[in-house]
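Example pasted here:
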Amino acid sequence: MNANGPGETSDQRHDWDIKKLHILRTLRDRGTVTATAEALLMTPSAVSQQLTNLAKRLGVPLLEADGRRVRLTDAAHLVLRHAEAVFAQLERADAELAGYLRGEAGRVRVGAFSTAVPALVVPAVLRLRRSHPALEVRVREAEAAEAYELLSAGAVDLALSLAAHAPSARDPRFTVVPLLADPLDVALPADHPLASSPGLRLADLAGEPWIFGGSGPWSQITTAACEAAGFVPEQAHSAAGWTAILSMVSAGMGVALVPRLAGARCEGVAMRELPADRRPYRHVVAAVRRGAEGGAGLSHVLSALRELSPTPPLP
């Protein structure tokens, strides 16, 4: 669009192009022209041409060579700092327009990690079917890193993840909303000497063999909880799924921390709550694109998720 007004010359105002700014932002997020082209369903040459045209319109270099790749210039980062405010305002405009045109109708796409789907998202969908039958909720299972890529790309409207893997509060693309504090319980073999011990503490299990994932969020959460209790857990076995973890606990192969939200149960396993003053938690958050949180559909989904959260966020 031509932003020049009466009596203004082209060196006083610049031509801003939302589509090309979106391409520039995607390049910043994805890192390469090829990845940007794949994300936007374009060819690499088309991406390069659009960004070259944007640089000519703005009158500043946006890209510079970095070996066989390109990187954003300081001018490009300056442009994007201002563009983020524009994107957020457009999200707010879309949200308000959707509310005006559709009222309670519409579609909200949710990306959520595996244990949140049956424990939170599905009950929220059932509740919304009764309270807002014209609101359609579509669900996509996705772990944290993928969920935020989908959110940034516009493939989902709301992402549920663990706080440890949420974007920084300074990230201009997203608004992150604390949702709940999920207590971690201890899974012990049913015949373990401490299975019925009163006042069981996590520190009492310092010498036990532990079962948790080899990498990723659950490994970090387990390690952090044990270190906060004063010891480093000895990882005897590695597994990511609760069925596998609890079957090994049942066989007497070790102990494990299990999020209460997972609702995991297994014959031969004793689930023990830790004392409230020493209880570890994992923190679950919801994220939306900044500016979209005022949309009627998203507000209804967030409200349903909050109402169904068994334990609110800790202060």
In short: The mean pLDDT is 88. The first strand starts at residue 63 and ends at 66.
